[in-house]
Specification:
This protein is of the alpha+beta class. It has a single domain (2-129), classed as Aminopeptidase, CATH 3.40.630. It is 33% helix and 24% strand. It is built from four helices and five strands, in the order βααβββαβα. The radius of gyration is 15 Å and the shape is globular. Keywords: Transferase. It comes from Paenibacillus baekrokdamisoli.
């Protein structure tokens, strides 16, 4: 049984290992702890984990952003979506995305936005099945 819950401090070592699969390099653990401590009490940040028998097998982060345009409703940026290699194709990514969408709706967000690497074709099929393609957009990212 998969459970979805907020990532806690004790989950950080496992989260760092998941992120290695996501970004193909080691996460600087001390910086991760410092950043986690800086955002853990900020309700604009939501970091969810998917757990199978208490083992972290997936995660994502949502960041609620204020908007000054139109009705001035917030929107959510989704980042760091990852499911462990051994746990893929079991509906975990879907559960994470639906959970963050529900939280975004509850916070009054009027849309979700994220970018995904062009090579993640299997993940793109999931995103499309969840309704993320009814508006054609281009994503841009510049690493600094």
């Amino acid at each position: 049984m998969i459970t979805i819950r907020t990532i806690a401090f004790d989950d950080l070592p496992d989260l760092a290992r998941l992120y290695e699969d996501l970004i193909n390099r080691k996460t600087e653990y001390t910086a991760m702890v410092d950043t986690f401590n800086a955002i853990k009490n900020n309700d604009q940040y939501i970091i969810l984990g998917a757990f199978y028998e208490e083992k972290l097998v997936g995660s994502l982060m949502g960041v609620i952003c204020y908007d000054l345009a139109g009705d001035c409703k917030p929107f959510m940026v989704i980042e760091n979506v990852i499911v462990s290699t051994e746990a893929r194709r079991q509906g975990i990514g879907r559960k994470l995305m639906l959970a963050i969408e529900e939280l975004a709706r509850g916070r009054g967000c009027y849309y979700l936005i994220f970018v995904s690497g062009g090579h993640r074709k299997e993940a793109h099929l999931l995103y499309e099945a969840l309704g993320f393609k009814d508006e054609q957009v281009e994503g841009f990212r510049k690493h600094l």
